[in-house]
Amino acid sequence: MITAIEKIKTKPLTQVTNVKELLWNDAAKTQLQQVAAAHMKPERMMRLMANAIRTTPKLGECDPMSLLGGLMTCAGLGLEPNTIMGHAYLIPFRNNRKKITEVQLVVGYKGLIDLARRSGHITSISANIHYSDDEVWEYEEGTEARLRHIPGAQEGDKRHAYAIAKFRDGGHAYVVLPWAKVMKIRDGSQGWQTAVKFGATDRNPWKSHEDEMAKKTAIRALAKYLPLSVEFRDALTVDGGKADFAAFAINPAEQLDATPDDEDNRTIDGEATELDADQGADEKADDAKGEEEPTPVQKQAKPAATEQKPLPEKKPDPKTAERDMAEEASAGLIARIMSDLAEADSADAADAVMSLWQDQIATLSEQAQADINIAATNAGRGGA
């Protein structure tokens, strides 16, 4: 006799009627597997979504295909949604035209940083806010260009938002946005204008997460001048826009369409809270028309590739290539786990990181696992 669970698991995807069925459905996991990055597992993504629904019950009311499409997009980008890492968020919003609740994908500024590092040309990228009470702020453009910042109490007025990237060849580039410019971007965004119109600014990410929004705006401004990964550019395309995730869930071979707006300066961030489509769910931050783009200060920027004599063609060894790809994937996974542990400021945070990555850690070699365990222990002691 076929049980109710077995019936749900074997249902065709088009017959899945709610999110609870979606989390059990085998066809949904197959769709996830088709698009997922190497280190992303469908079972883990489903568990993360189940946890997200407990903290944001409105997600459980979403159209199941919209939720699956958003989850597939996160899996393709290699970002885990709705976790304490803040890489990405799947947020429910009400589509009043369709009379359904749909999902919107928001990529956090930490997610953009993680994606930027994957290009192979960037060793680090960061963003911060300059406050009036910071200990040191030195910023100058021109032939003596420089940027030096030592944060202070960060209780004064906000003066600048900036982002800086360091290249593998030793060069670097940065962008500094005066706070008036940041506010002009915010005020020009459709989401903020809609929130003001409906008196819902308290629910808008620019109100609840202003610093994070400003940092993300600076990273976007800097991104125009950097060699970035394909995933980063894909993230900019779908971030905060009205993408048809439901259609993507059914047919992942089709191009995922987002609202055709200016993608360069759209910014949105925040936690997985409930938003209404008419109250800024498709938050965008575009520069005012005719506004001059910020000019980054670049020192020893990565030069254009010089012409080199071609090496003798060597027939690739499939086994070697496969092994190299596996080693590269493992190295990238270890780097991500170590990076997350480095940001853990307490033993509880370190435990949470280890819990999130437990499935991936189990697949690594014993030595890699030992190194990660040591890093987790040190992270816990550092925050104690």
| Largest pleated sheet | 4 strands, antiparallel
Q: Roughly what fraction of the amino acids lie in strands?
A: 15-25%
Return the string of H and E elements: HHHHHEEHEEEEEHHHHHHEEHHHH
- Overall residue-averaged pLDDT value: 75
Across the major sheet, the strand order is 3-6-7-9
What is the structural class?
alpha+beta
> Low-confidence runs (pLDDT<50, min 5 residues)?
260-322
- Cα(first) to Cα(last) distance is 54 Å
Q: Which outline best applies? A: globular
Strand tally, please? Answer: 9
Question: Outline of this structure?
Answer:
By secondary structure, this protein is of the alpha+beta class.
Keywords:
384 residues, alpha+beta, 9 strands, 3-stranded mixed beta sheet, 16 helices
Describe this structure in words.
The chain is α+β, with helices and mostly antiparallel strands. 44% of the residues lie in helices and 15% in strands. The chain has helices at 4-9, 19-24, 26-35, 42-55, 64-77, 109-117, 179-188, 190-197, 205-208, 210-223, 230-238, 245-250, 318-343, 347-356, 358-362, 366-383, and strands at 88-95, 100-107, 122-131, 136-140, 146-150, 158-167, 172-178, 275-276, 297-299. The strands form three sheets. Strands 3-6-7-9 form a four-stranded antiparallel beta sheet. Strands 2-1-8 form a three-stranded mixed beta sheet. A two-stranded antiparallel sheet has the order 4-5. Helix 13 (318-343) runs parallel beside helix 16 (366-383). The protein is globular and about 75 Å long. The relative contact order is 0.12. The model is unreliable at 260-322 (pLDDT under 50).
